[in-house]
Amino acid sequence: MKKIIITLLTFFGLLSNAKESKVLEYELNYANLILLDAENLSELGIKEAYKEIIPLLEKYIENTIQIIEKIDSDTMHYSIQ
What we know:
Blueprint: H1 2-11, H2 18-22, H3 38-57, E1 69-72, E2 77-80
Antiparallel strand pairs: 1-2
């Protein structure tokens, strides 16, 4: 499967050399799988889920962003920024 993805990315000009293709040589570790339930996320759960995965994200990125929830009870509107 990896070879197919590398071939397609190269074909579409998204990979220019073999060195870049090495980045795609990885194996999925299903022991580190994070399950996110769409219903929970849609019911004011995005910020809570994000707080749980921040420690994992910090292994790969220097600065995580802050999420601000906007909840309007009158219009039943929920959004994040």
